[in-house]
């Protein structure tokens, strides 16, 4: 699996911008978890990354919006520091519901 940090900035001065923002967030939520308003931590395979990248770039207006995809180093716990409210959930470990 590849761990990613995806950040986006979508122009919301128009109704179309608001729609793009919601659609980008929806794609990101489907692949990972929100850690800040426009920041997601995502784990994907190589093939899923290609599909995710294509979905996101198809949604944005490249003249108004931007998306950044950063690969996170492993293990996450060693390289990611969080201060304040951190609701990260490690979905790789067993979960009790």
Chart the SSEs and their pairings:
Elements: E1 2-9, H1 15-31, E2 32-36, E3 39-44, H2 46-59, E4 66-71, H3 76-79
Antiparallel strand pairs: 1-3, 1-4, 2-3
Helix pairs in contact: 1-2
Order of helices and strands: EHEEHEH
CATH class: Alpha Beta
The assigned CATH architecture is 2-Layer Sandwich
**Which of globular, elongated, flat, extended, rod-shaped describes the shape?**
globular
SSE class: alpha+beta
Low-confidence stretches: none
Q: List the total number of helices.
A: 3
Our Rg estimate from Cα atoms comes to 14 Å
Q: How many β-strand runs?
A: 4
- From the 3D structure, determine the CATH topology: Alpha-Beta Plaits
Distance between the termini: 24 Å
Fraction of residues in β-strands: 25-35%
Helix content: 25-40%
Order of strands across the biggest sheet?
2-3-1-4
Descriptive notes:
- This protein has 97 residues and is α+β, with helices and mostly antiparallel strands.
- The chain has a single domain, classed as 2-Layer Sandwich (Alpha-Beta Plaits).
- It is 36% helix and 26% strand.
- It is built from 3 helices and 4 strands; from the N terminus they run βαββαβα.
- It has helices spanning 15-31, 46-59, 76-79, and strands spanning 2-9, 32-36, 39-44, 66-71.
- It has a 4-stranded antiparallel sheet, with helices on one face.
- A hairpin with a 2-residue loop joins strand 2 (32-36) and strand 3.
- The longest helix is centred in the first third of the chain and has 17 residues, at 15-31.
- The two termini are 24 Å apart.
- The model has no long low-confidence stretch (mean pLDDT 88).
